[in-house]
């Protein structure tokens, strides 16, 4: 009986360490990553419908990012650490926001922002699933548009982001072809609206 109890306690201890690794992996990722590029598949689930899109992302920490939707529609979100542009090619509209008001405009903004997630989020380790170490980040600010965010990591890299907003909508993102600390052209993070588009400043 004692052996069974000890084995059970040891297994629980090993499991708790495995879960805690997700938070450690996130800290290591943020501490060692200065730039990143990847492909993504994004699925937005809400009201019984799922919308899927694909594209590319490029990030330079802190504050610079380019989140480019390619299919099924072409849209672009660009941040240069001061200003964030949202450009819809089909609608011919470009919207500019101060970066302080647009930190949650895209997952890239979250990844490229303040690397001290513990300052802005309460972190909780979750059980491993689908071969990934998971953690949950709950915003400390009441005015956040997200209820919580789940991050899945493997091999020291973020592979999944699941964002749960306050309107019952879930955004699931899978990253692939991840390259950390590449040299990126600074022009990727600057946006000049084309002359034939409507410009909205917020």
TrEMBL record:
Alphabetized UniProt keyword annotations: Chaperone, Periplasm, Protein transport, Signal, Transport
GO cellular component terms, A-Z: periplasmic space
Family annotation (SUPFAM superfamilies): Prokaryotic lipoproteins and lipoprotein localization factors
A biological-process GO annotation: lipoprotein localization to outer membrane
Gene3D superfamilies attached to this UniProt entry: Lipoprotein localisation LolA/LolB/LppX
Top-level taxon of the source organism: Bacteria
Subcellular location: Periplasm
InterPro entries linked: LolA/LolB/LppX, OM_lipoprot_carrier_LolA-like, OM_lipoprot_carrier_LolA_Pbac
Signal peptide location: 1-20
NCBIfam families xref list: lolA
Function: Participates in the translocation of lipoproteins from the inner membrane to the outer membrane. Only forms a complex with a lipoprotein if the residue after the N-terminal Cys is not an aspartate (The Asp acts as a targeting signal to indicate that the lipoprotein should stay in the inner membrane).
Entries under HAMAP family matching the protein: LolA
UniProt family annotation: Belongs to the LolA family.
Assembly and oligomerization: Monomer.
Protein name as annotated: Outer-membrane lipoprotein carrier protein
Protein source organism: Silvimonas terrae
């Amino acid at each position: 009986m004692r052996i069974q109890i000890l084995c059970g306690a040891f297994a629980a201890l090993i499991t708790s360490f495995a879960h805690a690794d997700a938070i450690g992996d996130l800290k290591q990722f943020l501490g060692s990553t200065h730039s990143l590029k990847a492909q993504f598949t994004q699925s937005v689930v809400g009201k019984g419908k799922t919308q899927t899109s694909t594209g590319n992302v490029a990030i330079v920490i802190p504050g610079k990012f380019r989140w480019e939707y390619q299919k099924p529609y072409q849209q672009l979100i660009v941040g240069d650490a001061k200003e964030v542009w949202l450009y819809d090619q089909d609608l011919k509209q470009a919207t500019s926001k101060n970066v302080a008001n647009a930190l949650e405009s895209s997952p890239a903004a979250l990844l490229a922002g303040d690397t001290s997630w513990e300052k802005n989020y309460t972190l909780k380790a979750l059980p491993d699933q689908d071969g990934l170490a998971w953690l949950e980040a709950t915003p400390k600010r009441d005015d956040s548009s997200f209820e919580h965010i789940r991050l899945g990591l493997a091999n020291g890299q973020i592979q999944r982001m699941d964002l749960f907003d306050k309107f019952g909508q879930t955004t699931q993102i899978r990253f692939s072809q991840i390259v950390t600390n590449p040299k990126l052209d600074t022009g990727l993070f600057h946006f000049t609206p084309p002359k034939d588009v409507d410009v909205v400043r917020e």
